[in-house]
Design brief:
Radius of gyration: 17 Å
Oligomer: single chain
Structural class: alpha/beta
Length: 178
């Protein structure tokens, strides 16, 4: 996302900080940012159409719902021209069946998954070379994987994060449950 992009944020903007941070980050990169929080699905699609939106940020299930409403409203998602869909807020973008469904409903759009938590902030970004593979932002976290039962290091298990740059709420060895 950068200068020249037109980004629809199809989230309800409430006290959760994550969506506000994404909005601000896109704006700082020079994108035109459209908040769709108070609109219904059909109105969001019309706003996207009228403003030539090429990036959509929403949950995976809401991207599926928007596709349903587009069909009901006879709005062609191919003609809408969304090239990038950034999904967050729930699992789905890295689940192969969900990703395939989204790609089939939104022709020409590349799905990017993103993962974060209220407690620690944005945690991962999707690999451009390998869709569905998430990378921990190593400049912001010391990441460990432990056996959930023993708490010992393990090749597969629970993600544990230590924040490296958070001043307001630093966390040491935060057990994510993921």
């Amino acid at each position: 996302v950068g200068a020249g992009d037109r980004v629809m944020f199809a989230f309800s903007f409430g006290p959760f900080l994550g969506f506000w941070l994404a909005f601000e980050a896109a704006a700082r990169r020079g994108a035109l940012c459209l908040p769709g929080g108070g609109l219904g699905s059909a109105a969001r699609l019309r706003l996207m159409q009228d403003n030539h939106v090429n990036v959509l940020c929403c949950t995976p299930t809401y991207a599926l719902r928007l596709a349903e409403v587009a069909a009901e409203e006879k709005i062609s998602l191919r003609e809408l021209g969304v090239k990038t869909i950034i999904v967050a807020g729930e699992p789905g973008g890295s689940i192969p069946a969900t990703r395939a469904k989204l790609e089939s409903l939104w022709p020409g759009a590349r799905i990017f998954d993103h993962h974060g938590m209220t407690e620690v902030g944005p945690v991962t970004f999707e690999c451009e070379a390998k869709p569905g593979v998430l990378h921990v932002m190593e400049s912001a976290y010391y990441a460990e994987v432990i056996d959930p039962a023993s708490g010992q290091p393990a090749p597969r298990g629970e993600l544990v994060l230590t924040t490296l740059a958070r001043t307001g709420s630093p966390l040491l060895r935060y057990r994510t449950g993921d």
